[in-house]
Predict the 3D structure of the following.
Amino acid sequence: MLDALSSTLDWLQTRPYLFTALSAALLLGTAWLANWTVKHLLARALHRTLSATPLGRHLPSYEHSVVRRLSNIVPALILSSGVTLIPGLHPAVVTVVENVCRAFVVLTIALAIGGALRQANRLYEQRPDAHLKPIKGYLQVLEFAVYALAAILMVATLVDRSPLILLSGLGAMAAVLMLIFQHTLLSVVASVQISSNDILRVGDWVEMPALNADGDVIDIALHTVKVQNWDKTITCIPTKRFISDPFKNWRGMHESGGRRIKRSLYLDQDSVRFIDAAQIEQLRHFTLLRDYLSGKRAELDEWNRHLLVQGAAPLNQLRLTNLGTFRAYVENYLRHAPYIRQDMTLLVRQLAPTATGLPLELYCFTATTVWADYERIQADIFDHLLAILPEFGLRVFQYPSGADLREWRLPAAERRER
């Protein structure tokens, strides 16, 4: 058998091109076999071992693992080392193959580091407090730096020059690079400011009217912040806009546990009047007004008694109004409501009269921040107030409707009947 092998080698040496081709094919086959062995045996065994650990359960699938990427280095190293053993190859070909293999190794390592950084971000996001301090922007900056360094090393390897020469040339191109990567640099600065100043978190409800964004933050990356609007559309906002443009973050409302109600009833000013003793007695049936009416009656009686002593005409006496009594009723109604926060600001105030009536504003906070519950509470409050207004002799202001116009056209007798 040794004689047959020796004779075969002697025969191949007489045909150098065939010997070179077979040697190259043998090297390629060896590299492929090594790649298959590492990926299907060693890498898979390592992946199964890691999957049995708590950390390994959160690792990505085998097809996208960092180990699988690193396994591509093995055939590149075999080709780089074995190409020098192939007889008959031109030195330039050997140099090109070696440089390409080394550049491929650099690229593979860079891709593996990038995958590891992305996986680190996924593992970090599984922490309960991850939304408070997102690190995705920082990892993307690091990933960008790794790819930039890998690109320099690959170019230096392919042209067979020192990386320091390329780096010295980059100094002269700094202005051009600043222009090309200005958005990236601005995004990096914005990401650092957002994180360090705690301006934005994943899960925050933000409003940015300039970009029609109104919803929850679902992702904070280096270049963009994704906001899922209430209509389930996604708005991608450049990260730097959260530093340069005004926006509203509702996080403080959620953390306080109360959501503000600031809404007005527009009353017809012609319905405001004094109330007499009979009406006061009728209003005493409201439990919420008993203390108010008793205290107010004593205060007015004392004031009016001084006026009588001074000989002032009865016209100067102070009297209760239906609007003031209704305002006291609304405030006491809110003070006794279990769904209204009593430890936060609670006001019932009049605003300046307008052409659409006299605004009576309610300013208070609900005991919940859930949107649906908040709207229900607010609707219940104003349903009750609108229904009870006639008990105080007050009317809500509104523009005449079609029904009003039709009623005005009826004869006076028919209107009286109605």
In short: Strands lie at 205-208, 213-220, 224-229, 234-238, 248-249, 259-267, 347-350, 358-366. Residues 306 and 312 are 9 Å apart (CA to CA). The chain has a mean pLDDT of 79.
